[in-house]
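Methods: holo model generation. Sequences were used as deposited, without trimming of termini or removal of tags, and paired with ligand SMILES retrieved from the corresponding compound records. Each pair was processed once, and we did not select among multiple samples. The sequence and copper (II) ion SMILES for this entry were:
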Amino acid sequence: MMMALLVSIALAVPQVPGPKPQARVVKVVAERFAFTPSEIVVERGTTIEFHLTSDDTDHGFRIVGTDVNADIPKRRRGETVVKYVADTAGRFVIECSRPCGAGHTAMRAILVVK
Ligand SMILES: [Cu+2]
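and the model returned the structure below.
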């Protein structure tokens, strides 16, 4: 019994090998028709853990040029967690990938990887 408890605790602790930094948690709130924050800046090599929530309806979160494309559930339906290793420097457009109304196509943010 005690053994099982210890094992489950050990598994819950994130393993951080060597000097590699822990994931950087970035909370992003989506609402018609914007993401907050609208600009996210990280150093190249950062593992980003996006925590995505909506203040109104369903939205999407796509980082153009990457394979990140997640649904963000409507308000109070929880959050979506997406991990992304920012291993390429540049400016990446983040767009809403789920039709959400008149301003949908203008719903953008930017990820800057330095
Ligand atoms: Cu949208």
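The longest strand covers residues 46-54.
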